[in-house]
Amino acid sequence: MDTALPSTNYSLFNIPQLAEDGTNWITYKERIRAIKPKPFKFNFTTKKQEKDDGTEPTQTEIEDLDKKIDEFYQKDSLVKQQIFSTITDWLLLSIQKLQVSFLIWVEVCAIHEGKTELVQIDL
Question: Which pTM was predicted?
């Protein structure tokens, strides 16, 4: 499997470093978000997948969702790397034990959300 990162032309890598004092937290936060696609539910009675409205998805819909979920996990790895490359060393050391980018992101948010009001006033 090729583990090389994509070219730095990708907009994912055009994110500025998070300032130690959090002055760019608001814009940094908006640039780094990723949302996981919601999988279909499994109906244990019918032993089939179903959509939120209770109907059975087509094979194409299942394949499309599987592809989106696979893409999410690939991007999740890139998001983790992006966060690690744009935060300060002290923050990296405090979150490096977390394995999933979502958990890393929650921790970064918890640390910086309290600073947001002061930064907005300064701006």
Answer: 0.56
